[in-house]
Amino acid sequence: MAPVINGRLLFNQLPNGLPEPGKTTVYDTCETIDLETAPLNGGILVKTLVLSIDPYLRGRMRDPSIKSYAPPFLPSQPLDNYGVGLVLRSERSSFKQGDHIYGRLPFQQYIVMPAAAAEQYTVLNNDTGLPWTAYVGICGMPGQTAHHGWREFSKVKAGETVFVTSAAGPVGATVIQIAKADGLKVIASAGSDEKVAFIKSLGADVAFNYKTENTREVLAREGPIDVYWDGVGGETFEAAIGAASVGARFIECGMITAYNGGEPYYVKNLLYIVGKQLRISGFIVTSLHQAHLSHFYETFPKLVKEGKIKYKEDVTKGLEHAGHVIVDVLTGRNKGKSVILVGEE
Amino acid sequence: MAPVINGRLLFNQLPNGLPEPGKTTVYDTCETIDLETAPLNGGILVKTLVLSIDPYLRGRMRDPSIKSYAPPFLPSQPLDNYGVGLVLRSERSSFKQGDHIYGRLPFQQYIVMPAAAAEQYTVLNNDTGLPWTAYVGICGMPGQTAHHGWREFSKVKAGETVFVTSAAGPVGATVIQIAKADGLKVIASAGSDEKVAFIKSLGADVAFNYKTENTREVLAREGPIDVYWDGVGGETFEAAIGAASVGARFIECGMITAYNGGEPYYVKNLLYIVGKQLRISGFIVTSLHQAHLSHFYETFPKLVKEGKIKYKEDVTKGLEHAGHVIVDVLTGRNKGKSVILVGEE
């Protein structure tokens, strides 16, 4: 069989503000691979089917000397993120041809995975028959983020009130549904009327467009809030502190407003952290896997399959579009969990 | 017996920035009381012996329409705070003449306490024979704050590092000693060389004067920090976020730099709350009494009496000086736990 092109999305240069496709990232087609003869040296050959696109990727486009929770992308190397791949060939007993694997995959169409690296992947059995894209969304990192963060930090009682931001995003939309199942009043915000309609359809009691309604005023009317699910930070974080009840729990899963550099919004009421006895917890989903991942896989795919937890995907076909899709998720233009369909089975 | 003057420190007008004795507070001697004949109507007559002076009193000098954790002082009424009083006469079976009681007392020399109000006081047995002033300091609210906050939130392992601010204050100085007993490396800051010498004498491994050494640089050299004991907020809070290890615990017991109004310092690195997975907990000591107060009284007075926990008092004689002493604690001029000796036994 003749070699085929092995397309890759490479990290090219540091962005200043929002990343720019063609500058920050470059789609490269100069490499080829012979899928039948490429030597595996004891590893596996994987075809990338699905890649997840998430706001936190912006944080990895940084000077490698700056430390942060996720490693920086390296110049001229492919980006990477959670994805689902198909095993085309295997020289390891733990994987066989036709297996679907989940884990961090580089942004390239085919990967020869060395033996040691292969072991970090999970084989998905998918006995509920969900589409593979679901495994980077509602049944992948975003769903796990909502599930783990809520179980670890929310400490809710029925009748309490939660404020969910980025509520039309894959994490926020899931949090709304978990919170409703727990008997809470849910206030949720998003950045377009279309998104607001979506979060209302998920059961949010109060849904508003933060671009046309003032968050502080909505919280003054509908709060106080006992739980704050934060995906944005900045001025919204300040409004949440102002509307928090005594002992409120703040679950800090992202501060997207601070990701693109520039001057951050200055929060003026941190003093209330003491007086209101707030519990503010930042977290990274992987740190909570040990405590919550098995419960997640036992319950979530089934709830999703039964329609008890709804989700929305925004699927783009073709790795060459990934650079633009990253900008879309950073500016809120995506309509559901953003996924790149890199290859078909 | 002739009536005696019953001196009182009254709240007179809202301060703008630091309170001003004679304006914000006024010492008043126009009331008298006959200690033998004043009717008790089923209550008790108390002579105030000791009153505590603490930074949080500034927060109570506010417009009553502003809500906060501690109630506002009311115009023309005496201030109040934790203190120790001597029961001169009692018409309640739960108190007898000669009892020493602990609780919130008004800033006045003698109080006829109505029956219902009397029940909020604790009779101190003081079987260790500590001076009564100790019961508003190391064995009172500041000691309890250190003890409760540490037990509830620090979650330390021996070998970790803590950064203690306001470290020469009665809370911070106690935290240093608890942390050393738990096997931690202690970095501690205070605002004068004399205070630095004091905190070194308590066992701090690294003690520095934040007015002459840069907090950020000290933490870069001596950190990262696993626990941050915050009594100051603002720029120091920012430095602590910068020097925090992943999963660090921030115990927020006060943000004194924000108490006196004006523009707060703007913390620029709140984004790291997520990436560093910080646990930030604000608290008010009274909320933790249920979980920790009995352990406190079982252990602390004994440790203090045996010299295993050291403390330092700054005692001022005479209620008429209380207005100035409040300014001293807000500006860091006190040398140890600030106490007013209102009356002798």
UniProtKB/TrEMBL annotation, chains A, B:
The keyword Isomerase does not apply. It comes from the Eukaryota. Coiled coil: none annotated. The keyword Oxidoreductase applies. GO terms for molecular function: oxidoreductase activity, acting on the CH-CH group of donors, NAD or NADP as acceptor. CDD domains: PGDH. InterPro entries: ADH-like_C (IPR013149), ADH_N_2 (IPR041694), ER (IPR020843), GroES-like_sf (IPR011032), MDR_fam (IPR045010), NAD(P)-bd_dom_sf (IPR036291). Keywords: Oxidoreductase. Residues 28-340 form the Enoyl reductase (ER) domain. SMART domains: PKS_ER. PANTHER family: PROSTAGLANDIN REDUCTASE, PROSTAGLANDIN REDUCTASE 1. This is NAD(P)-binding protein.
